[in-house]
TrEMBL record, chain A:
Part of a membrane-bound complex that couples electron transfer with translocation of ions across the membrane. The modification FMN phosphoryl threonine is found at residue 180. The complex is composed of six subunits: RnfA, RnfB, RnfC, RnfD, RnfE and RnfG. This is Ion-translocating oxidoreductase complex subunit D. It is a multi-pass membrane protein. The chain crosses the membrane at residues 20-39, 45-63, 95-113, 125-144, 211-228, 235-254, 260-279, 291-309. Belongs to the NqrB/RnfD family. It comes from the Bacteria. GO terms for biological process: electron transport chain; transmembrane transport. Its EC number is 7.-.-.-. Keywords: Cell inner membrane, Cell membrane, Electron transport, Flavoprotein, FMN, Membrane, Phosphoprotein, Translocase, Transmembrane, Transmembrane helix, Transport. It is found in: Cell inner membrane.
UniProtKB/TrEMBL annotation, chain B:
The gene is rnfC. This is Ion-translocating oxidoreductase complex subunit C. Pfam families: Complex1_51K (PF01512), Fer4_7 (PF12838), RnfC_N (PF13375), SLBB (PF10531). It is found in: Cell inner membrane. HAMAP family: RsxC_RnfC. Gene3D superfamilies: 3.10.20.600, 3.30.70.20, NADH-ubiquinone oxidoreductase 51kDa subunit (3.40.50.11540). It comes from Thiorhodococcus drewsii AZ1. The lineage of its organism: Bacteria, Pseudomonadati, Pseudomonadota, Gammaproteobacteria, Chromatiales.
Automatic annotation (TrEMBL), chain C:
Its cofactor is [4Fe-4S] cluster. It comes from Thiorhodococcus drewsii AZ1. This is Ion-translocating oxidoreductase complex subunit B. It is found in: Cell inner membrane. It comes from the Bacteria. The lineage of its organism: Bacteria, Pseudomonadati, Pseudomonadota, Gammaproteobacteria, Chromatiales. [4Fe-4S] cluster 2 binds at residues 110, 113, 116, 150. [4Fe-4S] cluster 3 binds at residues 120, 140, 143, 146.
Amino acid sequence: MKTFIASSPHVARVNRVDSIMLQVLLALVPGILAMIWFFGWGLLINILLAVTFAVAAECTVILARGRSPLPAIADLSAVVTAVLFAISVPPILPWWMTLLGMLFAIVLVKQLYGGMGYNPFNPAMAAYVFLLVSYPVAMTNWLTPTMLTEHHLSFTESLRIILDGSLPQGLSWDAVTSATPLDEMRGKLDRNLTMGEIRQSPLWGAFGGRGWEWVAAWFLLGGIYLLWKRIITWHIPVSLLSSLLVCATLFWAIEPQTHPFPAFHLFSGAAILGAFFIATDPVTACTTTRGQIIFGASIGALVYVIRTWGGYPDAIAFSVLLLNIAAPMIDHYTQPRVFGHGGKRG
Amino acid sequence: MAVAHSLIANRRLWTFHGGIHIPDEKSLSNGAPIAPIALPSRLVVPLQQHIGAPARVIVAVGERVLKGQMIAEPTGLVSAPVHAPSSGTLVAIESHPIPHPSGLMAPCAIIETDGEDAWAELPPPMTDYPQLDPELIRERIRWAGVVGMGGASFPTSVKLSPGTDRHIHTLIINGAECEPYISCDDRLMRERSGHIFEGVRIMHHLLGVKQVLIGIEDNKPEAIEEMRLALAETDMHTYTEIVPIPTLYPSGGEKQLIRILTGKEVPTKGIPAQVGIVCQNVGTAAAVADAVLEGRPLVSRVVTVTGRAIANPRNLEVPIGTPASDLIAHCGGYRETPRKLVCGGPMMGFALRDADTPITKATNCVLALTPEESPAPGPALACIRCGRCAQACPANLLPQQMYWHARAKDLDRVQDYNLFDCIECGCCAQVCPSHIPLVQYYRYAKTEIWSREQEKRKSEQARARHAAKQARLERQEQERQAKLRKQKEALAAKAKAQAKPETAAKQQASAASPTETANDS
Amino acid sequence: MLTAILAIAALAVLFGLMLGYSAIRFHVEGDPIADQIDSLLPQTQCGQCGHPGCRPYAEAVARGDDDINKCAPGGEATILAMADLLGREPVALDAEEKLPAVAFIDPERCIGCTLCLQNCPVDAIVGAAKQLHGILSKECTGCELCLPPCPVNCISMVPVTEEISGWRWPFPSTPLKETAKSQPERAAA
């Protein structure tokens, strides 16, 4: 037998980074399927492109750092980043923007800070914001949900749009794209329309934007799966959604004609996806329990503030990045009470 | 009485933060009764098997020793003697590997046994101990070399003398045995419950406590049942209670068990006596009964020999100093080549480098793990700050923060995050998805801090000695100068008085002589 | 324009006064930096740094006359501590790092000349003229200053055996290698 100086514990470890990442990917599947159902094949093409670009970028940087790329690829973190990015951007985003986004996310935001575990910002959201401020038109060019449009883009048509930007014969952009529900709501509220008038539009479903509401619901299911599997804890998603809900309810109760109904805020944009899959990114979120609650609640409140009074229709990405900056400070001030150290119960 | 009963009926249990559920693996070894082991031909008895001052050898090499004869006496208050575990000849006092994570050597008494296992003359039993002076009983326990047998090996007599200024109200008997695989306390409770209660009664008498709580994890229903039955037969049930506690690692940690049973937290850097509690292991209770009621010193203990690499895992009653390899041989040897031989449990024990390492008073388990049970951890990945470690930490620390600072060798910052409140239970490392050897980082930081403090003390001492030498040299120089001056003055005065008209030649001669004197000195 | 110039000038005067006042008000006597550096040094008084003891070296570093990497007995740990204290970049040790050792006098060869005794900076050698000398190994700092004066070369340096009480857990290596890197030569000694 060999001789050891090995510290305990001596038995097999119970968790693995790659299995955690795999569970996250698995939990995203229902929402992704719903998105493909409502918005067509472009989304799937985007995911495949983004994953390829991200993995290639990760490999290149790690090889340049003189290390073996295999362990870094095998932890699946680049894949998760790519998928989160691809489902956040419009399904017909030109391929080179996806490439740009992935290079930004993996090279600048992740690897230049030291790689997995060292990045202060959520790479997917940083890339999203980078593209949003650089190419605002392309980044807000969302497809119309399938039930509201005559023409359904086929796989090859989507591929052609993504690769060279050419629309199928006899189609105009207006026929296939439309504003997102949050955009629509914002534009109409700016034109002083009342909530009753706004809700006349066929864009609205039972409790959110048509199509969007079901996408959000399927992501919610995935989020609950993550909670059940203990991949994430309840603190960030619950505090984020409740704080958003509280803000929305408060203003809606005061002025229901000029403020969207609370369910709209939860189910129309990226709130659910953000709460369960983006804000919970462990690397960039708070780690203390109380810190996570503050972190989540602040994101929720910021999302409401930016959606209502800010310059952009949705705000998950901005809010998450802003709170990423604050996370170390929040952690510092919310350290738990250590066993045996008087004071209040932790 | 009625109050006590209603209290017992509704005993409230508290919880501690974190903790983890791990497969307990106890059924491997807890089925068979405790078996004796054939007397080894050679015993290697470490001279320090306790926390505190080392024991001093009182037997000459080459002398015949009898079982239970003291071969090393305690030095100082916190210390414990060592007794010969069997009769034979003390052939050497030499360095031998002892059970320690470093695998380093320490002085041991090597006894070649004669096979007679003849007892030395033992002190008379103290069956009438309630009438005796408590100091005599404590002295007996100290003489018997009883130390904490749960692993800490702190001299029991010291723990049983909390001093008059501390009011101790509760005695907690630790039968939790929360580490996976280990079942020696389980078997002890099932087979020697009466003996344990005798020890508990003695400790209850010594401490004068109001209540005794015996905490047992609920994965040992047979032990709980047996202890309850045994308790009902004694008159101790008025103040003693068997408390089953939920199985959650590490609820057998002293501070955790106290919290579970009483809701009290032992303050940081403090001891249980500060909150009016003394905690003892069930094995220690049995050893106390041996010492007081039978006059027998601690010369053997129950050791679990287990792990899937062992052919017939079981519990053995082993003389102190028996090599671990003898225990393994007695259990049918290896079923397959183990990847690791561990002394203690899988969560807090340490790997043995040498199967010849002897069993000591603190060794509760010899664990041979197969490659499947203890796979190589593989390279550690980067910390993803997932916080699972913090969720699992029973001390409510922030293990990931301590890891960052320990890794950066920033020993001050690690202490800011309360490194010394870490009990090294291994929960954080066990749940870490990046497989970072967190506990080793903390152990590295702790031992590094201690050794730097030691070096600091040493350099302070060297500085003081250096300064003292400088001062001495200076003083000597001044004294020499003063002497020189005096001699010069005296000579000058003499010359003046003796011969005023004398020539300058004489003066020159006298000026030369003091230099000679100085050289002589 | 004039207002701006006046305002800036007034501010400059104000801050100048504040700085001047605090320089007097918070003036520190002595050289606390030298003291702090001295407290980091191992106090072997060996002179390997080129200074006649630890204190003079500390003063030289505090003045900026010498580099922080001259202390061989302190090794890397001392350099890191000094770099941390002085806010400098750690530099590689300007000497070979040695294992801790203490002096040992061969009783067969010692002639009792007292020369080593006079050279020991910490009085760790006991003896008298024409008497066998002995080393208090607990006090010996391993400075080796006793080696050169010995006329019969009877002093040698013996590595300190690693004891359990001073044992340190090794820093986890990445990837964690389980093979014991426990300096076999030391364990054997």
